[in-house]
Amino acid sequence: MNLVPAWSNAALVEREVPTIRLNNDADLKEIYEFGRKLGQGSYGAVYEATHIETQTKWAIKEVYKPAAGTSKVAMVENEIIVLRSVNHAHIIYLEAIYTSPLMIYLVTELCEGGDLKQLLQQKNVFTEDETRKIIFCLADAVAYLHKSGIIHRDLKLENILVKNCLDEDDGRFDIKVADFGMSVKTSGVGIENIQTEACGTLIYMAPEMMSGRGYSHWCDNWSIGVIMYMLLCGKPPFFSKTKERLLRKIMTKEVQFDQPIWENVSDAAKYLLTRLLKPNPAYRMPAPLLLENPWIQGDTRVPSGPSNALEMMHHYMEHKEKTVEESSLVSFEDTLEPFLALLTPSSKTNSSGAELSPEGDSSSCTPSTANRTSHVGGKHPVQLRAKQRRPQDKKDLRTGQKPTSDLSKAEEERHSSSSREGLSSANLQLLQSPVINQNNTKKKKKQKNHTTQKNVRK
């Protein structure tokens, strides 16, 4: 299954929605023919209606004009502002607005399948595949809203409408997010956009909203998790009659999957629910990441990728540090390798295992294998510097000549006699160690300087 989100291609500019003033309510019936009632609420009722001229079917939401200064005025105005500014495949479409002295009529697209709460009551539970399609459409709409700076704040089963009856559409789901009366439009994610007003339905309410400490658009992601949980098992993940007890349950208990119905649900779906129902909003999976989750595309294996913004940042920083280390290592090796190629002669090995120069002179033995096994990054062996390996080749900067060292000659004679007596190659290499040569040379120079100073004082 290849589900493609529509939120990235949807328009974010405000649409031109016609607003028509009526002299009285009877004038509307000359434009639309009213049919069956689709729903009833405290705001008014929703009817199926047919446009007489075009014979197009619509839904008309009747809203009684509230008294000036009441909260209902703000809710109605808020819904109109939001619906005018959105245009998305899974958000209810506002066609026109009619106003009369007593009523406001919102003409929206018709959803003949009812809402998800009614459908859940009929089915008891949804299959995992049905839930996947619904959650994809819902996350797509929420990602679009959040990108537009809109927080819904009242996502629940009753506010998610089904476009067509399932029997008429081969069981395919086309949902529409509706009821934006409690939504709020923000100007970004700064501290000035933090909300404090608790609103919505209790069992869908995010814990940060209940706590009164401030919340942002992450509250909608919690509601998506509650809806998904209810679609799969028919019950909410947390339930209590009071806000305080419900908050305590959420903060002290993890999501439970102990009902028998969960045996038929994949581990990937359960894992996803644990990421959506995180009490700490910073660790909660956002809608855009939900759209990219493998479970949404039909992969029921448990994902291993990041599931929230903090994990994404952590993974990014780890990847960045690793990339910097690797690039530094490669740069160091590239710089060192040409010098190593020049300083390392091609060697042969005699019967005793000691490495010989191309001329076969045993006095130029290289360090033993034990001394050549240290690596940079586990790739290239570190060779001793030429200055350390051949101190006798170092020129005297004052005279331009190579210094003649009695100690070096003595060591060569000792080396020859040791070779004649059958010393092992390891002893020869220890004898020829550049570290010893260097230390002895330094000691000899120090003694010579001391003697010179003594003579001067005399």
UniProtKB/TrEMBL annotation:
ATP binds at residues 61, 158-159, 179. PANTHER family: SERINE/THREONINE-PROTEIN KINASE IAL-RELATED (PTHR24350). Keywords: ATP-binding, Kinase, Nucleotide-binding, Serine/threonine-protein kinase, Transferase. Residues 441-458 have a biased composition (Basic residues). Residues 390-399, 408-418 have a biased composition (Basic and acidic residues). The active site is at residue 154. Residues 32-296 form the Protein kinase domain. The keyword ATP-binding applies. This is non-specific serine/threonine protein kinase. Residues 345-458 are annotated as: Disordered. It catalyses: L-seryl-[protein] + ATP = O-phospho-L-seryl-[protein] + ADP + H(+); L-threonyl-[protein] + ATP = O-phospho-L-threonyl-[protein] + ADP + H(+). Residues 345-374, 426-436 have a biased composition (Polar residues).
